[in-house]
């Protein structure tokens, strides 16, 4: 899983009380500027009459979030909070982990209030894909680790949802869909193709992948998933199984 989760180099308890790094003031100022631009654009959007497209708001927010991620570990608490206050609708966590990402529920509310159908479709899918900042298809075990919930059909369903969205709105949210800091369809594809940790047993992975290749025989993911299925059936897959909490708690 890649994206809006990053580990700070030091835990919060180890961080020194903080002056801005001498070699980073320009980047910190850029993060501040982008955050200000985001909140200004959001305010203008909220004050505009009629339904408005939300895509520019998310794009601007992601520019600010990306800039803040690059300097978050060298900012002191006051500096981090100051910039964070200018990112309404974003989840910001900085303790043992670093999270800076859009709150799906916030944007669903905006889309419902005065967004367009494309916005509602996009952010509804985002809210189904992410539980806050964490992928809904994964069970969080530690701060930055988790196992994939194969066998529920959710990976297949979300892949289908995002594929349908891209088909229906081929020019919409292209920047967001290709943003490595957003855990959307690319993360779903990555879990299907590369997840090395399954919450349940190998049969759950086989069930999910079989459902995928039957449902989407022409998908570019299908050939490599068929190979993965064969490795699973032959018990040659490089994966860990039964990694979910209910299994780990039963271990001696």
Report on the architecture of this protein.
With 252 residues, the protein is mainly alpha-helical. The chain contains 11 helices and 7 strands. The chain has helices spanning 25-47, 55-71, 77-84, 104-114, 117-129, 154-168, 174-177, 185-194, 202-215, 222-233, 245-248, and strands at 5-6, 90-94, 98-102, 130-131, 134-135, 138-140, 146-148. The strands form 3 sheets. It has a 3-stranded antiparallel beta sheet. Strands 4-5 form a two-stranded antiparallel ribbon. A hairpin with a 3-residue loop joins β2 and β3 (98-102). The longest helix has 23 residues, at 25-47. The chain is globular, with a radius of gyration of 20 Å. The chain starts with a strand and ends with a helix. 32% of the residues are buried. Mean pLDDT is 90; it is low at 6-21.
Provide a quick synopsis of the model.
The chain is mostly helical and 252 residues long. The chain contains 11 helices and 7 strands.
Helix percentage: 40-55%
* Strand content bin: 5-15%
Biggest sheet, spatial arrangement of strands: 1-3-2
Q: Main sheet, how many strands, which sense, barrel?
A: 3 strands, antiparallel
Note the overall shape: globular
Please render the helix and strand layout as text.
Elements: E1 5-6, H1 25-47, H2 55-71, H3 77-84, E2 90-94, E3 98-102, H4 104-114, H5 117-129, E4 130-131, E5 134-135, E6 138-140, E7 146-148, H6 154-168, H7 174-177, H8 185-194, H9 202-215, H10 222-233, H11 245-248
Antiparallel strand pairs: 1-3, 2-3, 4-5, 6-7
Keywords:
252 residues; mainly alpha; three-stranded antiparallel β-sheet; two-stranded antiparallel sheet; 11 helices; globular
């Amino acid at each position: 899983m890649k994206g809006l989760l990053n580990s700070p180099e030091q835990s919060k308890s180890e961080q020194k009380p903080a002056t801005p790094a001498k070699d980073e003031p320009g980047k910190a100022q850029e993060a501040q500027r982008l955050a200000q631009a985001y909140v200004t654009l959001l305010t203008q959007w909220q004050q505009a009459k009629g339904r408005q497209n939300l895509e520019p708001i998310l794009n601007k927010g992601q520019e600010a979030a990306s800039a803040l991620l690059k300097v978050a570990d060298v900012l002191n608490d006051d500096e981090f909070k100051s910039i964070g206050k200018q990112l309404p609708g974003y989840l910001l966590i900085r303790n043992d982990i670093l999270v800076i990402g859009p709150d799906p529920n916030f944007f669903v509310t905006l889309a419902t209030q005065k967004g367009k159908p494309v916005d509602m479709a996009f952010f509804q899918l985002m809210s189904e894909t992410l539980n806050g900042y964490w992928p809904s298809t994964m069970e969080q075990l530690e701060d930055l680790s988790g196992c994939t919930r194969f066998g529920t059909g959710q990976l297949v369903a979300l892949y289908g949802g995002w594929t349908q969205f891209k088909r229906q709105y081929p020019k919409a949210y292209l920047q967001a869909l290709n943003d490595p800091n957003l855990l959307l369809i690319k993360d779903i594809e990555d879990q299907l193709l590369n997840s090395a940790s399954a919450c349940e047993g190998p049969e759950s992975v086989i069930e999910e992948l079989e459902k995928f290749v039957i449902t989407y025989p022409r998908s570019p993911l299908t050939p490599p998933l068929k190979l993965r299925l064969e490795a699973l059936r032959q018990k040659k897959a490089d994966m860990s199984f039964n990694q979910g909490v209910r299994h780990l708690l039963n271990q001696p």
